[in-house]
Specification:
The complex is a heterodimer of chains A (77) and B (644).
Chain A lengths: L10 H37 L4 H9 L2 H14 L1
Helix pairs in contact in A: 1-2, 1-3
Chain B lengths: L6 E9 L3 H11 L3 E2 L10 E2 L6 H18 L11 H43 L18 E7 L5 H7 L4 E5 L4 E7 L3 H10 L3 E2 L9 H52 L5 E2 L3 E9 L3 H12 L4 E5 L3 H4 L3 E2 L11 H7 L10 H16 L2 H17 L5 H22 L1 E2 L2 E2 L16 E5 L6 E4 L7 H31 L1 H25 L5 H19 L2 H4 L3 H8 L2 H24 L8 H37 L9 E2 L14
Parallel strand pairs in B: 11-16
Antiparallel strand pairs in B: 1-9, 1-10, 2-9, 3-8, 4-6, 4-7, 5-6, 8-9, 12-13, 14-15
Helix pairs in contact in B: 1-7, 2-3, 2-6, 3-6, 10-12, 10-18, 10-19, 11-12, 13-14, 13-17, 13-18, 14-15, 18-19
The chains are: A mainly alpha (77), B alpha+beta (644).
């Protein structure tokens, strides 16, 4: 007779994995979005230094994604 | 405060024969921002430079080239008398120029020689171990000479082709010199090609390579001493004339500025018109200055500021001295325009406040404040000082929040439910429980144990900050486009938020849901009228902007984590409490210092950038336009010479 090993995942572990995914994936998403904006902003700044403020703002807009991820992760744990 | 300085537009008119006196007086007063004149097809023409301008420019070019050749750096020196500088300059500019030219030319020739020696040295090096006079490498009728690099000694291969040969092989460098009769040259050349022979050209010199090399090296050393001597002479010139160069550069720059001023103003055949701006408070002084300089022959009149003018009014901040460092943060984004509120005074409060909320550690605050004070004292640059002042403001706030949070370099000062704190006997006092995850608020506030409460609290901070932005936006809008535009464009946001609040109250059963929904819809309607379709599209920004303030706790927690990890590694793992003092203690201290040094550096970057972002994106986004021109008066701030 074949016995099937029954294993149960620890819910706390799954929660931790979920939290890690929330932070990790949103972090990657922010990085991916900021990559192009940042490069373009530096380019614009090389032409005109006065664009620093606007460049910084545009660059950090996607950062909110990872902050949301972090909040979700904290709420999960 | 809250508004840029009030400006006036003034026009100065006079006869051309008093132009020079007028320009002189304006330059000295350093308060009039000249509006450059562009020819517009009317009879007014751009003026011609004052007399003597080209001579001054010539001297300035000369003095600047001398300064760059000598490498004169801007340093603080005692101020000099301008006329003394001028007479000294006239007497020695040409001799200095010639002297320097001779020295620079001498150095250039020496360096060219050095380069040449270097290249012949490079040619010699492969042949250095072959003790054969270089004159023997050439001039044969019946012999062919092969000189070059090979991988291994080709002697056996050569001996198979011909018995009559002469070979010199240097194993160390892999160099071979081979003499064969002319009629055997072809097979030998083929054989060598097979042995990966790479030809080198023997230098056209006479003598044994090793002796030649020694000779070259001696010459090199000789030239180097000569170059050093020239350098010393140049340094002596620099030392002798450095103050003169700095001072005369300043005087000549001023003269050039003055003599070129007519290029910026309108003239007719016999009169000139200088158009420009100045702070209204200085208007009387301008009249006085012009009156005194021209005996009342030039006229100053104030112009009305028309609507299109408002866009080009130069902006001068009008803030108390304590707020002025924050103007750097404004400049980074763009100066305010003439009609809008200058938020420097607002970010004077909010920027350090948010920074402190994020960092909130007494230890780091003390370290960074000390660093800022030291840098401020040591570095005399005008660009660094305001930044250091901002850093100090931020550290004051961080220290106060450090007291509130009870944190010192990542250690909790107070004990918390059995875990000991840094100060023995100091226990956390529980005050009340919050509805969020049963967390208990007390003193000090342990951020690591009050995460949910802090998330809610930071969102509230965000809402207050954002609404402050809407309020300023409301005032700006009212000033620019009137009350109704302000109500629809900015006031609608308050209505929308009120609607959301009422709906939330309905959710907990205090109100019928219809009330909240109705207010919300009215708000959206107003927004649609005020901002068009762009308004409702931006609605979710209320949520995303206020949630964005949770970074205050998020970034703060990451800073605590790094600090407490460093502490745990140093005093938990490497040198646990109670173990004897020894080599490990030292190691633990090193880890402690480096870890916290890293975190201190991060403590400027992370909270600083995040606090800045909250100002620029979440706060300024609600009201700020920016893009004002800098008020840049015609004049010069003298550093090296006295005023006449």
């Amino acid at each position: 007779m074949v016995t099937e090993a029954v294993t149960m995942a620890d819910p706390a572990g799954l929660k931790a994995i979920g939290a890690a995914l929330a932070v990790g994936l949103t972090g990657l998403a922010s990085a991916y979005a900021e990559r192009d904006i940042g490069a373009a902003a530096i380019g614009a700044m090389a032409e005109n230094e006065g664009l620093f403020g606007k460049g910084l703002i545009l660059t950090v807009i996607p950062e909110t994604i990872v902050i949301f991820g972090l909040v979700v992760a904290i709420l999960m744990l | 405060m809250l508004k840029p300085k009030q400006m006036s537009r003034a026009v100065i008119v006079g006869h051309k024969n008093i132009l020079e006196e007028t320009v002189d007086a304006l330059h000295k007063a350093n308060l009039f921002h000249i509006e450059d004149f562009n020819e517009d097809g009317s009879d007014l023409k751009i003026g011609k430079p004052l007399e003597g301008g080209s001579e001054v420019s010539r001297k300035l070019v000369k003095i600047r080239s001398i300064a760059s050749l000598l490498g004169v750096k801007e340093v603080a020196v005692a101020k000099q008398n301008p006329s003394a500088v001028c007479s000294r300059l006239d007497s020695c500019l040409d001799t200095l120029d010639q002297e320097l030219d001779v020295l620079v030319e001498k150095k250039r020739l020496l360096e060219a020689d050095l380069k040449e020696l270097g290249s012949s040295k490079k040619d010699l090096l492969p042949l250095i171990n072959i003790d054969l006079d270089l004159s023997l490498y050439r001039g044969y009728e019946n012999l062919v000479v092969f000189a070059g690099h090979v991988k291994e000694n080709p002697e056996t291969l050569v001996s198979r082709i011909t018995p009559s040969y002469e070979i010199y092989y240097d194993q160390h460098n892999g160099t071979v010199v081979l003499f064969v009769p002319k009629d055997k040259a072809e097979p030998v050349s083929e054989m060598l090609a097979g042995a990966s022979f790479k030809e080198i050209k023997a230098p056209a010199l006479d003598g044994v390579p090793s002796k030649l090399l020694a000779d070259i090296e001696r010459k090199e050393a000789d030239i180097n001493t000569k170059i050093e001597a020239v350098d010393t002479e140049i340094d002596a010139l620099k030392l002798k004339y450095s103050d003169l160069i700095l001072a005369s550069n300043e005087i000549l720059s001023i003269e050039v500025q003055k003599s070129e001023a007519p290029l910026r103003i309108a003239t007719t055949e016999s009169s000139f018109i200088i158009d420009g701006w100045l702070p209204t408070e200085n208007y009387g002084r301008l009249e006085q200055v012009i009156e005194n300089a021209t005996d009342g022959r030039a006229f100053v009149s104030e112009q009305e500021i028309t609507k299109p003018d408002i866009k080009i009014v130069p902006i001068e901040y009008n803030n108390p001295k304590v707020v002025s460092p924050l103007q750097e943060i404004m400049n980074l984004y763009g100066r305010p325009t003439y009609k809008e509120i200058d938020p420097s005074a607002l970010i004077f409060i909010t920027f350090p406040l948010l920074y402190g909320m994020i960092l909130g550690d007494m230890g780091y605050a003390l370290i960074l404040a000390t660093l800022a004070f030291i840098i401020k004292k040591v570095v005399s640059s005008d660009a660094i000082k305001p930044l250091m002042n901002i850093l100090i403001y931020c550290q004051v706030s961080a220290f106060l929040f450090g007291i509130l949070y009870g944190e010192f370099l990542g250690f909790p000062l107070a004990g918390y439910h059995g875990q000991p704190g840094l100060i023995p006997g100091f226990e956390t006092i529980d005050l009340f429980a919050t509805p969020f995850a049963g967390e208990v608020v007390g003193y000090p506030l342990h951020r690591t144990h009050l995460i949910m409460t802090f998330i809610v609290a930071t969102i509230l901070v965000g809402l207050i900050h954002i609404n402050m932005g809407y309020l300023v936006g409301f005032i700006n809008e009212k000033r620019k486009h009137g009350m109704s535009a302000a109500i629809f464009e900015k006031g609608s946001w308050f209505v929308v938020q009120l609607g959301i609040l009422l709906t939330a109250l309905a959710y907990i059963g205090m109100l019928p849901i219809i009330v909240g929904a109705a207010v919300f819809i009215i708000g959206v309607g107003m927004l649609l009228k005020g901002e068009g379709i762009k308004g409702p599209v931006e609605l979710p920004s209320i949520l995303s902007n206020s949630l964005s303030y949770t970074r205050i706790i998020a970034v703060g927690l990451s800073s605590i984590s790094i600090a407490s990890t460093v502490n745990a590694i140093a005093f938990g793992m490497i040198w646990p409490p109670g173990s004897p003092i020894g080599a490990m203690t030292l190691f633990a201290i090193v880890v402690f210092i480096f870890g916290h040094a890293l975190n201190t550096a991060l403590s400027i970057i992370a909270p600083g950038l995040h606090a800045l972002r909250l100002q620029y994106v979440e706060f300024f986004g609600k009201f700020y336009e920016g893009g004002g021109r800098k008020y840049d008066p015609f004049g010069y701030i003298r550093k090296y010479t006295e005023e006449n």
